[in-house]
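Sequence in, structure out. Go.
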Amino acid sequence: MRRHQLAIQLKTPAQIEKMRAAGLVVAAALARMRDAVAPGVSTAELDAIAESVIREAGAVPSFKGYHGFPASICSSVNEQIVHAIPSTKQVLRDGDIISIDCGAVLDGWHGDAAVTVPVGEVRPELLRMAQVAEDAMWAGIAAAARGAASGRGRLTDISYAVESAVRRGGRYGIVDGYGGHGIGTEMHQDPHVLNHGRPGRGPRLVPGLALAIEPMITIGSPRTVELDDGWTVVTRDGSVAVHVEHSMAILEDGVWVLTAEDGGRNRLGNLVSSLAAVG
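Output:
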């Protein structure tokens, strides 16, 4: 991942503020969907909520029409890892766990985030896995902040931090082939951000770099299968998976978690840019 081989888009602080506006739209849509998750609710109903919130904010769903994807969210339930298409036929049941991925574009700039939400009473080991994924995501974001502050940070420092946090959390499968990415005027940009790997490799972590950090882990094997719909990715062994994501940007004085309502302050403290306090 040499810098000159990648088309990395560095953003100005003003552009990052525009991304923050898109990120807040995504945060609002995810909050509304989280509140709506319950036994008996279909994933198509969640999709309708997301589209309504996004369009009411003057934004456009990033996912809808993206390479032909037919919906505004990806709604991955249980063994579905990512990219599941919402459906009136997929009705949530007590004990399910759903990962909801949502994106919005506002004024030409994208926000992208995902949450994993329990449905009713969920097995403790699944709740624990969701928490491990969440903690691993924040560990990756913190690694980006510290690496940029030191002037020596490299992209795979994020990957290493995510993997290390998952390994500390338990024996989980880390899904390969899917991960985070650059984000900006397109939803997916260089560089690809793996959720595993050795540190100290890849492009430098510098101000202006905006990334989506998104761990995907399983309670069983990390091997995957893509279904015949051409989108839905499931675990090969049928084990339950979780997926979480935030979009973040590096500034001169810290990071800004663009899709977190508090900008990341609660989890990251003084690693967060001062710009987040006013945005």
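Check: The chain has a mean pLDDT of 96. Residues 124-150 form the longest helix (27 residues).
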